[in-house]
């Protein structure tokens, strides 16, 4: 495969620097809270077994996820983060000449992972309100389409697809076209039940993609999973990098699944911080979109990179999409204060 035609992940990202050299990093959609104490205890214990290989099947985690939802264990695919699982799925489903339809802008890894699978990405612009243009996406599905990727809540805009819209879209696709619904941020959506698999049961060509990186706060451990038809899971497991989910990551993910009350409390906290930040950025005139994720999207167009530079000078790193907008992760109050001050300064300078 010729890799010259695509860059490494975020290799071309514009570097921004604060005068002091220190930045609050609100660019990666990480949760600002550390893992719960029970999860940290598991990690400390597992650190003493770092000399041992993990189970290449991550069987305990597969069993835990199967019981959590519940589904048949043959429907669960685990891997190193949701991006790693997505790569397994695309390698399984796609080859040279195949097409993958997705929204644009999107998670930066989609185009890269599509290219690695030797397929061709077919980006479809979001609507003016930052939502999937499902009608336009359906129109781009053709004879060469193997996969459609949807993301809800959407990264980077935070908009969410309704179950009825998803159902209508799915029933309109040709048989055999697989839809991968990326739900990395679903736990932050207070109006959705992350354990509701109704859509999955109703549509045999649907895959749900999930992550322990966001709500569970295990981004540094790299654990993701998909719930999919067993025949697809069996094929996708053959594309996995051996031992890609470490012992510590597997055990921490299992422990985090058990902390349901703690997770609900953490999500309530993040949603409260998100709503507060939304109000302050709105008051500053930056018109963020209402979000169901742990981040906000500001459609600043040509001013996106200027705002990222201004934020960096104030000590806050954000994610700029040149010519489109800026994504800001919900952080802690100190980071928010610095960002809000930068937002007001930016608005004043623009008037």
Describe the structure.
There is one protein chain. By secondary structure, the protein is an alpha/beta fold. The chain folds into two domains: 24-35 and 261-350, Aspartate Aminotransferase, domain 1; 37-258, Aspartate Aminotransferase, domain 2 (3-Layer(aba) Sandwich). Helices cover 38% and strands 15% of the residues. The strands form three sheets. A seven-stranded mixed beta sheet has the order 2-8-7-6-5-3-4, sandwiched between helices. The chain has a three-stranded antiparallel beta sheet with strand order 9-12-11, with helices on one face. The radius of gyration is 20 Å and the shape is globular. Residues 24-336 form the Aminotransferase class I/classII large domain. Belongs to the class-I pyridoxal-phosphate-dependent aminotransferase family. Its cofactor is pyridoxal 5'-phosphate.
Report the major sheet.
7 strands, mixed
User: Helical proportion?
Assistant: 25-40%
Reading off the top of the CATH hierarchy, the class of the largest domain is best stated as Alpha Beta
Q: Uncertain regions: pLDDT < 50 for 5+ in a row? A: none
How is the CATH topology of the largest domain named?
Aspartate Aminotransferase, domain 2
The structural domain count equals 2
Report the structural category: alpha/beta
Overall geometry: globular
Mean of the pLDDT scores?
94
In CATH, the homologous superfamily of the largest domain goes by the name Type I PLP-dependent aspartate aminotransferase-like (Major domain)
What is the helix tally?
12
Radius of gyration: 20 Å
Distance between the termini: 50 Å
CATH architecture descriptor text of the largest domain: 3-Layer(aba) Sandwich
- Tell me the strand percentage band: 15-25%
Q: What's the number of extended β-strand segments?
A: 12
* Widest beta sheet: strand line-up: 2-8-7-6-5-3-4
Give the H and E element order.
EHHEHEHEHEHEHEEHHHEHEEEH
């Amino acid at each position: 495969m010729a890799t010259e035609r695509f860059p490494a992940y975020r290799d071309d990202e514009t570097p921004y620097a604060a005068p002091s050299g220190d930045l609050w990093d609100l660019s990666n959609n990480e949760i600002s809270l550390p893992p719960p104490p029970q999860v940290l205890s598991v990690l400390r214990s597992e650190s003493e077994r770092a000399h041992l290989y993990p189970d290449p099947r991550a069987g305990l985690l597969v069993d835990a996820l199967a019981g959590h939802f519940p589904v048949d264990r043959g429907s669960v695919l685990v891997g190193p983060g949701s991006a790693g699982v997505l790569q397994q799925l695309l390698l399984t489903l796609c080859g040279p000449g195949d097409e993958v339809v997705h929204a644009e802008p999107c998670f930066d890894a989609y185009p890269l992972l599509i290219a690695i699978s030797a397929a061709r990405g077919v980006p479809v612009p979001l609507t003016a309100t930052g939502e999937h243009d499902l009608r336009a996406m359906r129109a781009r599905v053709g004879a060469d389409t193997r996969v459609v990727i949807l993301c809800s809540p959407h990264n980077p805009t935070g908009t969410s697809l309704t179950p009825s819209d998803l159902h209508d879209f799915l029933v309109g696709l040709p048989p055999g076209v697989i839809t991968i619904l990326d739900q990395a941020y679903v736990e932050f959506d207070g109006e959705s039940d992350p354990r509701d698999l109704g859509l999955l049961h109703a549509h045999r060509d649907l895959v749900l993609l999930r992550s322990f990186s966001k709500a569970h706060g295990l981004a540094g451990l790299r654990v993701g999973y998909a719930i999919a038809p067993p025949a697809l899971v069996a094929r996708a497991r053959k594309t996995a990098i051996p031992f890609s989910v470490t012992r510590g990551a597997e055990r921490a993910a299992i422990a985090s699944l058990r902390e349901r009350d703690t997770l609900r409390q953490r999500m309530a906290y993040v949603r409260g911080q998100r709503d507060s930040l939304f109000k302050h950025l709105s008051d500053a005139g930056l018109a963020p979109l209402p979000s169901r994720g742990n981040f906000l999207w500001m459609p600043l167009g040509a001013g996106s990179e200027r705002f990222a530079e201004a934020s960096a000078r104030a000590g806050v790193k954000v994610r700029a999409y040149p010519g489109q907008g800026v994504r800001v992760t919900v952080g802690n109050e100190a980071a928010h204060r610095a960002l809000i001050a930068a937002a007001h300064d930016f608005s004043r300078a623009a008037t």
